Amino acid sequence: MTEVQDVEKGARARTRRAIVDAAVRELARDASVSLGQIADAASVGRTTLHRYFPERSDLLEAVRAETTARLDEAHARARLDEGTAREALRRLCPEYLLLGDLLTLLFTGVLPESVIDEAADDPLLALVARGREDGSIDPALDDAWVIGTLWAQLYLAWATLCEAGTARHDVVQMLMRTVDKAVAAP
């Protein structure tokens, strides 16, 4: 590949990234946002947006793929296999909160629920099972309850960050403390 081709490929990747990032931001604000508004937010023309994503469904698929990738990255940064499951869950809470507007898309149903099922629930189910084995997660709580508790608290934390103006550090501390106490073995 020539240097010119490398530059063109990099420019295409940056443009695609700008469109997907703008779609995440704009869809989080308004699920019915038009493709034209997304193009404006990405600082590209509609023609350019349609060259990358001919249909709205193509763009939503790219956003879904981005969400899955970012959930996977959050799991990796949280080092889910290290320490007790409860310790890993405490590391995971702030990582999930960093997903930002993607949380809004997950919580509001803009993205299909299967995104959470595919990308998040499997690692979380394994984490909960490990927590029962290592004694750090209450065995009386079933899997759905533990995972539901995490997502409910993430929703509250994200809403608090978006609406109440509470400092991120304080929200993260409250989130981690609440989830930790909610799932702890007696």
From TrEMBL:
Boundaries of every HTH tetR-type domain copy: 13-71
Gene3D superfamilies: Tetracycline Repressor, domain 2
UniProt superkingdom: Bacteria
Record has Membrane as a keyword: no
Pfam families in alphabetical order: TetR_N
Known DNA-binding region: 34-53
UniProt keyword list: DNA-binding, Transcription, Transcription regulation
Stored PROSITE patterns: HTH_TETR_2
InterPro entries: Homeodomain-like_sf, HTH-type_TetR-like_transc_reg, HTH_TetR
Cited PANTHER family: HTH-TYPE TRANSCRIPTIONAL REGULATOR BETI (PTHR30055:SF234), HTH-TYPE TRANSCRIPTIONAL REGULATOR RUTR (PTHR30055)
Protein name as it appears in the record: TetR/AcrR family transcriptional regulator
Biological source species: Isoptericola hypogeus
